[in-house]
Amino acid sequence: MLIMKKNQLFPACMAYLLWCSLPVMAQKQTAALKQTAISDLQSQYDHYKQTALQIWEYAEVGYQEYKSAALLAQTLRSSGFSVDTGVAGIPTAFVATYGSGKPVIGILAEYDALPGLSQQAVPEKKPREGASAGHACGHHLFGTASVAAGIELKKLIEAGKLKGTVKVYGCPAEEGGSGKVYMVRAGLFNDVDAVLHWHPGDRNGVSLGRSMANISAKFRFHGLSAHAAAAPEKGRSALDGVEAMNHMVNMLREHIPSSTRIHYVITSGGKAPNVVPDFAEVYYYVRNRDRDIVRDVFERVVNAAKGAALGTGTTMEYEITGGVYDMLPNRTLALAMHKNLQQVGGVPYTPGEKAFGEKIQATFAYTPPPISKAGTVDTLQAERPGDGGGSTDVADVSWTVPTMGLSAATWVPGTPAHSWQAVAAGGTDIGAKGMMVAAKTIALTGIDLFTDPALIQKARAEFLQAKGPGFQYKALLGDRPPALNYRK
């Protein structure tokens, strides 16, 4: 039995009480850091809003985002980050770094627009003059919020409140260009402990839903030109090859897993009806949550193209322009992010914003959720109905390092992505307010990761178990260089 003298008992008790109080003290310190981050980010609202609106005006498509990438890189550089540009063989990709040592926390930033979706910031369909593209997926907000969160974490590291390294990844061409896949392939995430991201949407929430794996490719048919009336027998129509391929693929739909999605657009079909087209091109996407199914179905699409060329007397070649994995969610990080999103809250509308939103909702061909939905935070769910319908190159990052993201209400409730309504809201304070919800939530989750080593360890253990033993990453787009001209 241990016997203590009276003069030993008091110091021992004090030491025990101090040890017990350490977790409480740490929690209070973390809470204070989070409140500082929220307040500081809110004070920068106008600055970050203007940055986002400038990128909204640029509306540059995949791998052409020279001005957008330069603006974000310079914002980070002027805030004290070292910035490496042109990484992974991509002129518009960058990695901005501040701090040293572990942990290393990565934040993803996107900034590419979509072709054919030019729109003014008004609640009626009205394209911008002189512009053909638009931020119908809100990546101008995505990139800016991520940069804002990274800068906020940098300030706390600089002040000695946090220890470690923060990296902001400038990620181009998410829309079909698979920019992050090349960044993963180049090993840019190999030293990172956790990655945070977000995406614009019509609600605020964290979901453990999975995205779809995807392979995209352009099929190019070559034939022989001839006068379509005077000498049609001398011609071989490349457009016939495209149409024959499309017909066979449409019949193929009956004999593939029903969860598979196949989309295509004819990007070139000839110039005049009286000229047999000697060139035609069709652009395809093949998606499924199971990347092995994607590989199999894509090969069958390729075979349809080969058969179409044989049957029409044309030749065909194809180029895989993109390929992404299905998302690997991380529940450990999701729980932390959801708690922080609850603290930040949703997006309240002013009377003017509510009127704008009601006009937007009047253009829908369905009944949307109430406007007030933007001001709430969804419960954390394993999966929401409809999740997994899209694809993202964030998924490839998620198979490389523990990764988690959120959705923030930058659009009027009920707004679909890739719509003029999304572009319109993204050019207003509705979009900017949602952007700041994301910036604050990412910054708060970053604080958790910097101050709680156990959180990173638990996320890592879950990540390794989910990947399974023997997993080796192999990009779906193979070894090809970045498809820098896929939008041209």
TrEMBL record:
Signal peptide location: 1-26
Domain Peptidase M20 dimerisation: 215-307
Pfam hit, one: Peptidase_M20
Gene Ontology terms, MF aspect: dipeptidase activity; para-aminobenzoyl-glutamate hydrolase activity
InterPro entries: Amidohydrolase, Aminobenzoyl-glu_utiliz_pB, Bact_exopeptidase_dim_dom, Peptidase_M20, Peptidase_M20/M20A_hydrolases, Peptidase_M20_dimer
UniProt feature coiled coil, ranges: none
UniProt GO cellular component terms: cytoplasm
Keyword vocabulary terms for this entry: Hydrolase, Signal
A GO biological-process term: folic acid catabolic process
Name of the protein in question: Aminobenzoyl-glutamate utilization protein B
Species for this entry: Chitinophaga japonensis (Flexibacter japonensis)
